[in-house]
């Protein structure tokens, strides 16, 4: 059945008319115009549809839009503040952590959420926690130092 | 005119890709993100039979689904297309040739309705005998996939054999192998293979077609090569090329898989059928695996002969490529693997036959490396095995046989130019950086082995001799520049490198040079394709030629402004000045749109530079012997790895790696390193784990990323060292050569060689999964496995003794 | 393994989000076979996309507070509610400390972004051969707590999984939680998963042991998954540890029993022969490490 859901997307209250069977991925992209959320497998394997839902990175291709009623969603478009790139975005640019870029928003939000939670994260933990998102261009070796560099900023803002 | 020598501001440095800010903010627009007003959605109906006649297609029920606008079938497109061999139908119109072959397309107002409509198209088949193994398909009694092969349009470089399943046959002949084998003291004869693998670019193929009322077709598509897509479409619809406009958006990965025949003609025709509305088709991941094109499977039988002092005297090889239901690019992959079978080595006697063979499986196309990973998987292992038999080390045997630029010629008889690169230095760099010959730390566990191995690579673009490229640069009124080039943008960073060249040449900040992100074939400069690591080389040369043209126009104006001879005009540091008289200087912006004298009158006008580049050296290859000049450059390189092998389980962990390429000249160091790291990861993934598995009836068993594993973050080696050597090539842009594909070619054989060096176990078949390695260990060196088991028990016994004492 | 959907959209259904167990049960009762329970959604929505599962009603149980219970009571054990996500479970300090094998299994289960959403009960109810949760749960002798129209019942995980994608749960019932019995100070556990270049393990192994030093009270439970259509408990190998022998002999004999009594399956991930070899190697390692830590 059709219903109206309300969510906060990147800090803004948004309202959408959705059917019960619609996926959060499709509502974000097609009804709310949030195109940074990509998809490449549609079954939870590639992680490109990742977004931060109430503080946690999740895969939106396996979540119903109606399940997200009342929740807060952050995507790559919403991580930067006042036109300035966030530390993780800056580091990705500096270290060349993008190739084709199709997976980049998913890595940005996933890395952002794990750094927010634990800026002291080790190299092995970064590798493990980001293994749910696939970069076929194989840009992991650029992402790793970028994430480590950005973690310093997250430490700073956490201790501040 | 001359440019003052100074240390480069951009060339050779780490420069962030110009599009990366859009990418990290999620605001780069891919075809996947494009929506047009009134857009409809298409969904494919695909075959569930490997080989069958289509008796009937019943679309009535589908057409009644609310929201369905139309249903198209093969009857709507009664023509065949193909890049090199015109063997392909848009939708099957009489025969299906594999499970997944598109049969119909349902157009609807919503994706949901299109999907429901697709589930309600009913197809009646009459099964035909099917063949899944190309070696079976070569037998005379095998079912014929393309009985009308003789009637298809074929490009001059290719030789399908009508009446057989052979889509292309290539022969390379040099010297006399049979006589040479008699002189050999070591002969290695063996079979090798590689499976079907998927490009698995993250953005699945998707496109929007808009057949306009004025007969012009616009297409937005996730592709690599907009101009070849345009040409193929115009040719198949028999309309002028400029009546097709391909929008060149960001593309979420290609790796060769988006260079061949795409879905553009289908969506264009669907748009026409749907009343000229835009129609979007997005492939699901399963459709991408089963209905589009992947990398072919490869089978090789080879015989290699060496003299007692290690000279590679003779090489006889038969390559069979399983090209699936349609040939697409694979006919050229088979040709390329054939003519490049000698790798980096000078082999006097060669006899290579390379076939592309139709089977009832998913069609295949180009993939990163294009025939070179196949040839190198075989050849680079042969080098190590021959060395071992001859009592030489793997470095020595390569030193004996490496081509010598300026002296040697390749297997096709092309003289290796003096400035082609420095393969010897590549080898020496790997030896030094990997620490070959130095002692290896032994792992604590007795069942673990740490080993080093390496392999070399060489590759050039495989393209028609006349494949050209062009560039246009437009000065804006403030002296900034729009660079119009046609090279696709799917992560290689070519456009940033081209902008760096322009910025460097004019001495202006990089921010003032840009390749537009939103491009289309009617407003960007032509280039043949974006494949084969040719982008920087061809479009870079075209850009340099455009720069020269723009400078000439600037000088034309400046010499009048300054009233000096044109050879005295200097363009540098964003300024135009006069040699020896630095006070005579104006800013580029003063002249970019037109120069205005103090009193107000003006001369000149907006500066535009145009340029092109075509190889004048390349030729077709002789149809009998394969002799000729196929490539515009060869990049020499190699990979070294240090791995951990678990003898108990067959697991391989790549701990350290070194990537070396002689790139001629580094343009963007960041770009070169991205390619080297990415190529290593992809090379590991493909050679260690990836395999499309088909069952006996031709069903693909793993059309997903759970069953088809791709390298993840956790698989990243601890250390990847990258060295870019710079032996400039005179006709390369600032001396540069391409590098994008070379970086994955030698990864697989380097790993296999590491295992061979440490254990003597030979791995002839990719992927080197733990089970495959374990099987090889059992069959070839069971004593090692038994020793490892004993070692494990002993190891645990020691810890156990400690705990008993506690 | 040949999953993969040509479809992007889900078929139509009605979504319900009851806030009490009673309401949820009555929706199930009304719709019976037409209803499905939605928690993390990872398994269910995939199957629905592929049209392998049909449902007219999805009952989202995440609004039912009592199902989000994660509680450890000394002497009674650990209770994990059916809407607790895998990452929430991992964060409970008792898990790593007392239920090591389950901690290790969940840590390797799918990936961080999915673990933020999927639940242990969901993983278990999917009952695919290769999933991670059953082996440690059976090794810990865990029970599934179920509520239905007939009231409450509890069933051992070992008998809950009946076969490939088949569990002992009626369409009108809801799994409310999983209970893992208390582990004593002498208990040790380990989970090993062989998954190099694969998403699923080719062999998953859990060993839970207690009182290793006193053979009369000694208990060792050895459970595999991914080797058959449902989890396999190595009863004959377990019985070896009832004897009073030095650890090395018991370990060797247990591994021999496994070799002689269990025939693993072949599928497109691995052959039975290779699985059998891995089982021996992994069991050797797991048992040694268990004794090492005793």
Account of the protein in words:
Chain A is α+β, with helices and mostly antiparallel strands and 160 residues long. Chain A has helices at residues 24-31, 87-95, 104-117, 123-129, 140-159, and strands spanning 2-9, 12-19, 50-53, 56-59, 72-74. Chain A is globular, with a radius of gyration of 16 Å. In chain A, 63% of the residues are buried. The model of chain A has no long low-confidence stretch (mean pLDDT 96). With 806 residues, chain B is an alpha+beta fold. Chain B folds into three domains: 20-27 and 468-614, Aldehyde Oxidoreductase, domain 4 (2-Layer Sandwich), CATH 3.30.365; 34-128 and 202-253 and 258-290, Aldehyde Oxidoreductase, domain 3; 294-413 and 420-463 and 620-780, Aldehyde oxidase/xanthine dehydrogenase, molybdopterin binding domain (Aldehyde Oxidoreductase, domain 4, 2-Layer Sandwich). In chain B, 28% of the residues lie in helices and 25% in strands. Chain B is built from 20 helices and 33 strands. The longest helix of chain B has 28 residues, at 535-562. Chain B is globular, with a radius of gyration of 28 Å. The model of chain B has no long low-confidence stretch (mean pLDDT 95). In chain C, strand 12 (203-210) and strand 13 (219-225) form a beta hairpin. The radius of gyration of chain C is 19 Å and the shape is globular. Chain A binds chain C through residues 1, 19-23, 26, 42-45, 47, 50, 53, 56-59, 62-64, 66-67, 110, 114, 128-133, and chain C through 3-5, 8-15, 17, 38, 41-42, 45-46, 49, 58, 60, 62, 87, 110-114, 116-117, 199.
Order of helices and strands of chain C: EHEHEEEHHHHHHEEHEEEEEEEHHH
Would you identify the regions of chain A where 5 or more consecutive residues have pLDDT less than 50?
none
Number of strands of chain A: 5
Q: Helical residue percent of chain C?
A: 25-40%
Averaging pLDDT over every residue of chain A, what do you get? 96
Tally the structural domains of chain A: 2
Main beta-sheet annotation of chain C: 5 strands, antiparallel
Summing up helix and strand content along with how strands pair, one would put the structural category of chain C as alpha+beta
Give the averaged pLDDT of chain C, no decimals. Answer: 95
CATH architecture of the largest domain in chain A: Roll
- Given this structure, which CATH class of the largest domain in chain C is correct? Alpha Beta
The ordered string of helix (H) and strand (E) elements of chain A is EEHEEEHHHH
Distance between the termini of chain C: 39 Å
Summing up helix and strand content along with how strands pair, one would put the structural category of chain A as alpha+beta
Largest interface: A-B, 52 and 57 residues
Strand content of chain A: 15-25%
The oligomerization state is: heterotrimer
Q: If you consult CATH, what is the topology of the largest domain in chain A?
A: Ubiquitin-like (UB roll)
């Amino acid at each position: 059945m059709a219903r109206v859901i309300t969510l906060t997307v990147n800090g803004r209250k948004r309202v959408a008319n959705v059917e019960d069977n619609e996926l959060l991925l499709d509502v974000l992209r097609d009804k709310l115009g949030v195109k940074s959320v990509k998809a490449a497998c549609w079954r939870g394997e590639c992680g490109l549809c990742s977004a931060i839902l109430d503080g946690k990175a999740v895969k939106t291709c396996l979540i119903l839009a109606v399940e997200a009623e009342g929740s807060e969603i952050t995507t790559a478009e919403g991580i930067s503040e006042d036109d300035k790139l966030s530390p993780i975005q800056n580091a990705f640019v500096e270290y060349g952590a993008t190739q084709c870029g199709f997976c980049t928003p998913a890595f940005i939000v996933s890395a952002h959420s794990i750094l927010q939670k634990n800026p002291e994260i080790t190299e092995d933990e970064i590798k493990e926690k980001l293994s749910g998102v696939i970069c076929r261009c194989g840009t992991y070796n650029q992402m790793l130092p970028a994430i480590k560099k950005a973690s310093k900023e997250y430490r700073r803002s956490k201790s501040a | 005119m001359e440019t003052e020598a100074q240390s480069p501001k951009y060339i050779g440095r780490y420069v962030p890709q110009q599009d990366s800010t859009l990418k990290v903010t999620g605001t780069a627009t891919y075809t996947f993100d494009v929506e047009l007003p009134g857009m409809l959605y298409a969904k494919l109906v695909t075959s569930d039979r490997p080989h069958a006649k289509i008796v009937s297609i019943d679309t009535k029920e589908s057409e009644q689904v609310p929201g369905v606008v139309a249903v198209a079938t093969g009857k709507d497109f009664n023509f065949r297309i193909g890049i090199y061999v015109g063997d392909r139908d848009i939708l099957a119109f009489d025969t299906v040739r594999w499970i997944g072959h598109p049969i119909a397309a349902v157009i609807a107002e919503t994706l949901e309705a299109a999907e429901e409509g697709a589930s309600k198209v009913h197809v009646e088949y009459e099964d035909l005998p099917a063949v899944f193994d190309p070696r079976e398909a070569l037998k005379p009694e095998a079912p014929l996939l393309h009985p009308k092969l003789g009637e298809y349009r074929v490009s001059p470089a290719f030789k399908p054999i009508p009446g057989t399943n052979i889509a292309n046959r290539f022969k390379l002949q040099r010297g006399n192998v049979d006589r040479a084998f008699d002189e050999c003291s070591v002969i290695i004869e063996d079979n090798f293979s590689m499976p079907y693998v998927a490009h698995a670019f993250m953005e699945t193929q998707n496109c929007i077609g808009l057949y306009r009322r004025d007969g012009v077709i616009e297409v937005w598509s996730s592709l690599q090569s907009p101009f070849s897509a345009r040409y193929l479409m115009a040719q198949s619809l028999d309309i002028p090329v400029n009546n097709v406009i391909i929008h060149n958006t960001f593309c979420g990965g290609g790796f060769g898989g988006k260079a061949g025949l795409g879905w553009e003609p289908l969506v264009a025709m669907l748009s026409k059928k749907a009343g000229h509305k835009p129609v979007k088709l997005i492939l699901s991941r399963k459709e991408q695996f089963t209905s589009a094109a992947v990398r072919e499977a490869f089978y090789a039988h080879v015989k290699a002969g060496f003299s007692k002092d290690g000279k590679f005297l003779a090489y006889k090889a038969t390559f069979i490529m399983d090209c699936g239901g349609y040939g697409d690019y694979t006919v050229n992959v088979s040709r390329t693997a054939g003519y490049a079978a000698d790798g980096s080595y000078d082999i006097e006697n060669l006899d290579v036959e390379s076939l592309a063979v139709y089977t009832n499986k998913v069609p295949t196309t180009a993939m990163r490396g294009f025939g070179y990973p196949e040839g190198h998987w075989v050849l680079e292992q042969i080098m190590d095995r021959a060395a071992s038999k001859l009592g030489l080390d793997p470095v020595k045997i390569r030193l004996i046989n490496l081509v010598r630029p300026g002296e040697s010629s390749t297997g096709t008889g092309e003289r290796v130019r003096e400035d082609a690169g420095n393969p010897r230095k590549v080898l020496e760099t790997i030896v030094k950086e990997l620490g070959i010959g130095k002692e290896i730390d032994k792992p604590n566990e007795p069942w673990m082995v740490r080993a080093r191995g390496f392999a070399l690579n060489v590759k050039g673009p495989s393209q028609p001799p006349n494949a050209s490229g062009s560039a246009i640069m437009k000065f804006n009124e403030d002296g900034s520049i729009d660079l119009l080039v046609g090279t696709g943008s799917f992560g290689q960073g070519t456009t940033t490198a081209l902008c760096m060249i322009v910025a460097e040449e004019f001495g202006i900040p990089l921010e003032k040079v840009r390749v537009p992100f939103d491009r289309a074939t009617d407003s960007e400069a032509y280039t043949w394709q974006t494949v084969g690591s040719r982008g920087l080389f061809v479009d870079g040369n075209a850009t340099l030629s455009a720069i020269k043209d723009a400078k000439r126009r600037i000088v034309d104006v400046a010499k009048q402004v300054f009233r000096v001879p044109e050879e005295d005009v200097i363009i540098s540091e964003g300024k135009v000045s006069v040699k020896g008289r630095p006070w005579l200087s104006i800013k580029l912006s003063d002249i970019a749109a037109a120069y205005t004298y103090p009193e107000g009158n003006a001369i000149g006008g907006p500066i535009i530079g145009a340029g092109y580049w075509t190889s004048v050296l390349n030729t077709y290859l002789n149809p009998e012997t394969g002799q000729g000049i196929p490539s515009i450059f060869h990049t020499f390189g190699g990979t070294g790895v240090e791995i951990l092998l678990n003898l108990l389980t067959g697991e391989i962990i790549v701990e350290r790696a070194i990537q070396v390429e002689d790139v001629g000249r580094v343009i963007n160091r960041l770009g070169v390193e991205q390619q080297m790291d990415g190529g290593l990861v992809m090379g590991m993934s493909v050679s260690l784990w990836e395999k499309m598995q088909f069952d006996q009836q031709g069903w693909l068993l793993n059309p997903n990323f759970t069953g088809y594993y791709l390298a993840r973050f956790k698989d990243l080696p601890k250390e990847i060292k990258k060295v870019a050597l710079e032996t400039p090539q005179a006709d390369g842009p600032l001396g540069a050569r391409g590098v994008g594909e070379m970086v994955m070619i030698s990864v697989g054989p380097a790993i296999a060689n590491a295992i061979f060096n440490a254990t003597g176990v030979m791995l002839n078949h990719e992927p080197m999964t733990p089970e495959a390695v374990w099987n090889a260990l059992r069959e070839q060196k069971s004593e090692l496995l038994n020793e490892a088991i004993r070692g494990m028990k002993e190891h645990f016994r020691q810890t156990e003794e400690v705990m008993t004492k506690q | 393994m040949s999953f993969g959907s040509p479809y992007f959209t889900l078929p139509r259904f009605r979504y319900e989000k009851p806030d009490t167990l009673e309401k949820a049960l009555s929706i199930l009762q009304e719709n019976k076979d037409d209803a499905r329970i939605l928690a993390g959604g990872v398994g269910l929505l995939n199957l629905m996309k592929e049209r392998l599962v049909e449902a007219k009603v999805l009952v989202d149980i995440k609004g039912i507070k009592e199902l989000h219970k994660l509680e450890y009571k000394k002497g009674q054990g650990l209770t994990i509610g059916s809407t607790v996500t895998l990452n929430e479970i991992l964060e409970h300090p008792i898990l790593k400390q007392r239920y090591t094998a389950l901690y290790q299994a969940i840590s390797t289960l799918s990936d961080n972004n999915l673990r933020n959403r999927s639940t242990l009960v969901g993983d278990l109810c999917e009952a695919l051969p290769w999933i991670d949760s059953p082996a440690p749960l059976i090794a810990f002798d865990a029970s599934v707590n179920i509520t239905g129209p007939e009231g409450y019942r509890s069933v051992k995980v070992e008998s809950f999984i009946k076969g490939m994608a088949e569990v002992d749960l009626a369409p009108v019932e809801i799994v409310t939680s999983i209970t893992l019995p208390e582990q004593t100070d002498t208990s040790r556990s380990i989970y090993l998963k062989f998954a190099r270049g694969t998403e699923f393990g080719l062999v998953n192994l859990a060993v839970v042991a207690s009182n290793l030093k006193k053979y009369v009270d000694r208990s060792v439970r050895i459970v595999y998954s991914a080797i058959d259509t449902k989890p396999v408990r190595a009863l004959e190998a377990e019985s070896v540890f009832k004897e009073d022998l030095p650890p090395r002999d018991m370990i060797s004999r247990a591994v021999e029993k496994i070799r002689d009594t269990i025939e693993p399956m072949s599928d497109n991930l691995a052959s039975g022969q290779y699985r059998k070899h891995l089982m021996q190697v992994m069991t050797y390692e797991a048992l040694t490490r268990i004794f090492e830590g005793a």
